[in-house]
Amino acid sequence: MPLEWSADGRALYVGRYETGVWRVRALDVASGRQTPVRDVVPRNLEGLRISQILLSPDAQYFVHSYSRLLTDLYVVEGIK
Length: 80
Fold this sequence. Notes:
four-stranded antiparallel beta sheet; mainly beta
């Protein structure tokens, strides 16, 4: 997923979302070569549902947002 152009315009930062982790790479548009930039991992992956990431043009700063779905399960016995 395209995230942001680099400040010099030579690379496009792209992200791949894999089970709660954003793997951010710099894609050199001239050569097609990808260079790892960072992996963004939430502290807790429990109940993680939707995730988004925004990146600054120098790739030094990012904003990561996500939502969680947590539920409780109750076992009831003896109901007639």
